[in-house]
Design the sequence.
């Protein structure tokens, strides 16, 4: 179970204050954006969520809700083979799929 905002792959969720409203977002996945829904980490105040806080951004939820139905087999093998490899400094978590 993951109860904290950081995994071996990095941040899972972040708190972002945007135009005075603080929300919890899924973390951005490629380094270009602070959140999955595309908020900029330089224009907005980013911090770690407090323990127990849940993602409450509707856009992040919508992205997750629409993409969770895809399976590894829906993607080209060259993508999934690199995606599933753990980074060298992380331990395998027993989640490999083929
Ligand atoms: Zn979001």
Sequence:
């Amino acid at each position: 179970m993951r109860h904290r905002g950081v995994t071996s792959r990095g941040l899972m969720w972040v708190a972002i204050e945007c135009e005075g409203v603080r929300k919890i977002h899924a973390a951005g996945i490629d380094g270009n954006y602070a959140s999955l829904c595309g908020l900029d980490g330089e224009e907005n105040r980013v911090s770690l969520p407090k323990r127990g806080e849940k993602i409450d951004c509707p856009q992040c939820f919508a992205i997750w809700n629409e993409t969770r139905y895809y399976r590894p087999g829906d993607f080209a093998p060259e993508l999934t083979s690199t995606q599933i490899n753990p980074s060298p400094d992380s331990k395998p978590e027993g989640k490999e799929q083929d």
About this structure: The beta strands are 6-7, 10-11, 13-18, 21-26, 45-47. The pocket of zinc ion is lined by residues 25, 35-37, 57, 59-60 (CB under 6 Å). Helices lie at 58-67, 77-84. The first strand starts at residue 6 and ends at 7.
